[in-house]
Design goal:
This protein has 254 residues and is of the alpha/beta class. Helix content is 28%, strand content 32%. It has 8 helices and 11 strands.
Length: 254
């Protein structure tokens, strides 16, 4: 992490051990990533729900749902959906779309749900954020324990090998007249993204930090958690996973 902070820089990340608890709860997170491709996300949901052959009116959990874009589409496909996220602001926004079969709640992904689900989706690299590696294992166990007897879970993670090989060290992204200065690097088994910007005369600094988990790391954790890894895909069209070339690491397990 960057240690040379200017006094006037608002470094919310330093105020909490869990960087995501502050960064994901800001409007700037959603501004920076507003260009995320909804069409691509919908194609993935179409493909994965077809592959899983979910029963009609299946109960689905979108774990770490953000503002609920996947949850909303899954609900449109006919499923009873719960979207869960740690960010109160994201859930407040998602709640604007709730209905009888689409609910949202603030939830820590390390905790097991009382309800059981036919499918649990953890999408768009929403895993590996915790400071303590044991929390990643705890999350996997919680997902397993929140499934019905015949349910399936899906983790959509980055393909670490491909990401590291194609890491862009520095770039500036301008969104809504804000210049986001982004630095990326690998350090101590984590991929870091340092984000600096100014808005309304105030300087901000945030850090994203994700554990660089490769397939073999997930396999080891899943074995320890008593989880069965059933299938692996390398992109949202469910093509085969290639260690160096695939954009995603998509794992189906129970």
């Amino acid at each position: 992490m960057l240690n040379s902070q200017k006094p006037e820089t608002q470094n919310l990340e330093a105020k909490t051990q869990n960087w995501f608890a502050s960064w994901f709860d800001t409007p700037y997170y959603h501004i920076l990533y507003k260009e995320r491709n909804d069409h691509e996300a919908q194609i993935f949901m179409d493909n994965i729900t077809h592959y899983l052959n979910l029963p009609e009116n299946a109960k689905v959990l979108d774990l770490a749902c953000g503002k609920g874009r996947h949850s909303i589409y899954l609900n449109q496909l006919g499923y009873e959906v719960v979207g869960a996220d740690l960010s109160e602001n994201s859930i407040a926004e998602a709640n604007k779309s709730q209905n009888e079969t689409l609910k949202f709640q603030v939830h820590d992904m390390r905790e097991t749900f009382d309800d059981k689900f036919d499918a649990i989706f953890n999408l768009f690299t929403s895993f590996g954020y915790f400071e303590n590696d044991e929390d990643n294992l705890t999350t996997l166990k919680a997902m397993k324990e929140s499934l019905t007897e015949y349910g399936f879970a899906v983790i959509d993670f980055m393909n670490v090998n491909q990401v590291i090989n194609n890491l862009v060290p520095e770039e500036v992204k301008t969104v809504e007249n804000i210049d986001f200065h982004i630095k990326r690097y690998l350090s101590e088994g984590h991929i870091y993204k340092e984000i600096d910007f100014e808005d309304q005369g105030q300087k901000f600094h945030y850090t994203e930090k994700v554990k660089a988990l490769a397939l073999q790391d997930f396999e080891a954790m899943m074995e320890e958690a008593g989880i069965y890894l059933l299938d692996i895909f390398g992109d949202y069209k469910l093509k085969r996973f290639h260690k160096t070339e695939s954009e995603r690491l998509i794992m189906i397990f129970k």
